[in-house]
Design a protein that fits this description.
The strands form four sheets. Strands 6-7-11-8-10-9 form a six-stranded mixed β-sheet, sandwiched between helices. The longest helix is centred in the last third of the chain and has 20 residues, at 527-546. It has helices at 50-61, 65-79, 122-132, 140-145, 200-208, 220-227, 252-264, 270-287, 291-301, 317-321, 331-334, 339-345, 353-364, 380-391, 446-449, 451-460, 467-474, 502-506, 508-523, 527-546, 553-563, 584-593, 612-627, 635-645, and strands spanning 12-17, 27-28, 31-34, 44-46, 104-109, 157-162, 168-173, 180-186, 231-236, 241-247, 370-376, 421-425, 433-440, 477-488, 491-500, 600-604. With 646 residues, the chain is an alpha+beta fold.
Length: 646
């Protein structure tokens, strides 16, 4: 049991609907159209027979028939094998500017008696996941046949491979690489943590480095890489976890074998769990005085508490062992949950960490949830042989009893009715910053159109007539920027931010007013102007792609493995850099969302006036306490680490 994804009172659910089986959901009178009951709109239509189709839709919308048809369509899609998504034959909806082969989004009204859509079904989660990760919509045959688009002067050779267990791999033979590297991206991050154990995904990432069944000696993998001049690392994000390493060409086969054991034979030793929990706890304590981490946790705390965004991703000793004091689910969540659900999701008793780790691993770490990228000077044929030898034993799918809980899609906007607010933050370090965030549901196809990047350029431009230049001339700001504050499948929070001087802090209200006015000007830009800016940006981006500078092999491998989740292999290099089309409808949607009533204003500065010195002194004292934190490491391991360094 877990808290419901759609709290009572929510009026809409968003599902990506695809394929011939769903045509009946959005077709009447032979016409396809897009509609939204949330705004009370009549159907937006393309094709003949509009009036007849509109009447049919209005009649259907007043009954439960449409909801049932949507649900049936999603279930049929899952039956056809959607879990990370098979390619649809054609889109159900016609949306201007949307690439062929993609579906669109239907927002369906959920009135009384529609609780069936609230169930945490794999089908609904799979449909949402496919919209968020279009890279998974490519069939195995299309993946393996893809030809990677690369800069004309790029000497590298590429080959996409699908192993028998379903693992998708992109091989990169680089004759100029100074090291070999590999990376695995796992399509689960801390959003996949069970509600009763925050930090499990991060803890699991740590545990994989502490030995495998094939190589049980702790530290052997790191020593082997260090001896060849290489190294390894990993990160746990909201929706992905990424592992990568680099090594010399001579050591690469052995390093790849040890790396593959992370995913085919993890040890997850009970002997190491207590010590690694304390290492995670130390990392958490080290993050406490870091303003960047504090700001991210603040943003998460503003979200709906029943959305995965509200989870605490790093974890610490208490969250990984037993419920800590004060870690109640919160009155707004608990009030709408059955007491039995609260007890199951927030247990007071201790936890079996090893059992939780093994269940998490079995549920998420299987071939169809992984993407592998390999970089080496070796020929593609030799690289393919190494990958098949070491990664073919990775489990193809999770056990049957765990499949139903494999997806962690929410399917609702986490900031609904939580906008139009101001938050004042007292930082640990000296800082003067004003941020305006505009959280909104993502524009469909934004990764292909780069429509948010367009507004990042418009608002963050540093020309003589820009806000950046005006603030600098007045001596009020050191810098000004625009871009993402958050990017997840249910939400993108666009942000404009200014780092202020002391003079700027003295004119804080004027700075805030100027920032809102600057955003308002971006809202007023017409389509022709935005299109011209888009074309200019496209030219520059294409030039940047054609003359791409070389990156370290491990950075290439990590980036490509992660991008395979969101792009087909032929576009994995090109599309993150160069947009596919100008999304006029998406631009208008973003402009509508840049209104003050959709904003969250965050002002970060040290307090002033009475009591400010005491508050600053207390903050400095707290920071100093956090600087020194206990890290319990056995003496034998310390000696081993020193020997490696020497």
């Amino acid at each position: 049991p877990r808290p419901p994804r759609h709290p009572p009172g929510t009026k809409t659910w968003t599902h990506a609907v695809r394929g011939p089986a769903e045509v009946g959901v959005v077709r009447a009178g032979g016409v396809r159209y897009r509609w939204s009951a949330r705004r009370g709109e009549r159907a937006r239509r393309w094709g003949p027979g509009n009036a007849r189709a509109g009447r049919a839709f209005d009649a259907m919308r007043g009954t439960g028939a449409l909801r049932i048809m949507v649900l049936l369509g999603v279930l049929r899609a899952a039956a056809r094998g959607l879990p990370r998504g098979a390619a649809a034959a054609r889109p159900v909806l016609s949306v201007p500017g949307w690439p062929k082969g993609r579906g669109s989004t239907v927002v369906c009204h959920a009135g009384a008696g529609s609780g069936v859509l609230q169930s945490n079904s794999t089908a609904a989660a799979a449909a949402v996941a496919l919209e968020a990760r279009p890279g998974g919509a490519v069939s195995d045959a299309a993946f393996a046949a893809a030809s990677v688009q690369k800069p004309e002067r790029d000497p590298r050779e590429f080959e996409a491979v699908v192993l028998e267990n379903g693992l998708r791999v992109l091989l990169i033979s680089d004759p100029e690489a100074d090291m070999a590297a590999a990376s695995v991206n796992v399509a689960v991050g801390h959003f996949g943590d069970p509600w009763h154990m925050p930090g499990l995904a991060h803890f699991h990432e740590h545990m994989l480095f502490l030995g495998t069944k094939d190589f049980p000696e702790e530290g052997h993998y790191e020593r082997y890489l260090a001896e060849s001049g290489g190294g390894s690392n990993a990160w746990t994000g909201t929706e992905d976890t990424n592992y990568y390493f680099h090594a010399s060409e001579a050591s690469f086969p052995g390093a790849l074998e040890m790396f593959s054991a992370f995913f085919r034979s993890p040890l997850l030793s009970e002997d190491a769990t207590e010590r690694e929990m304390k290492a995670v706890d130390s990392e958490h304590k080290n993050n406490l005085p870091a303003d960047q981490w504090r700001g991210f946790q603040l943003l998460k705390s503003l979200a709906d508490p029943s959305h995965e965004l509200a989870k605490f991703g790093t974890g610490h000793y208490e969250t990984l062992t037993s419920r800590a004091a004060g870690e109640e689910p919160g009155p707004d969540v608990e009030a709408r949950l059955d007491p039995r659900v609260v007890d199951a999701c927030f247990p007071k008793q201790g936890r079996d960490a090893v059992a939780e780790l093994k269940a998490f691993n079995a549920r998420h770490y299987h071939a169809k949830n992984l993407k592998l990228a390999v970089v080496s000077r070796r020929p593609l044929k030799e690289m393919k042989g190494l990958v098949e030898q070491h990664f073919s034993a990775v489990p193809a799918e999770p056990p049957a009893e765990l499949k139903a809980t494999n997806a962690a899609a929410n399917g609702f906007f986490p900031f609904a009715e939580r906008l139009a607010r101001r938050v004042d933050v007292v930082p640990v370090r000296e800082m003067r910053r004003v941020e305006i965030l505009y959280p909104a549901p993502p524009v469909p196809g934004w990764r292909e159109s780069h429509v948010y990047r367009l507004f990042s350029h418009v608002l963050g431009h540093e020309g003589s007539h820009s806000l950046h230049a005006a603030l600098r001339r007045k001596g009020w700001a050191r810098s000004f920027s625009a871009g993402y504050a958050l990017s997840i499948q249910d939400c993108i929070a666009f942000k404009v931010s200014a780092e202020l001087t002391k003079e700027g802090e003295a004119h804080l209200d004027e700075v805030i007013d100027l920032m809102f006015r600057w955003v308002a000007r971006a809202r007023e830009l017409d389509v022709a102007t935005l299109g011209r800016i888009y074309e200019e940006e496209q030219t520059l981006n294409q030039m940047s792609f054609d003359w791409t500078e070389r990156s370290a092999p491990e950075d290439v491998a990590s980036g490509v493995a992660n991008n395979l989740e969101y792009y087909p292999p032929d576009l994995v290099l090109l599309r993150p850099r160069v947009a596919a089309f100008f999304d006029e409808a998406g631009a208008k949607k973003i402009q509508a969302g840049l209104a003050p009533e959709h904003a969250v204003l965050v002002v970060t500065r040290k307090p002033s006036g009475a009591g400010a010195e005491d508050a600053s002194a207390a903050a400095a004292e707290e920071e100093e306490k956090r600087r020194v934190f206990p890290l319990e490491i056995p003496l034998k391991q310390v000696i081993s680490m020193l020997a490696t360094v020497l």
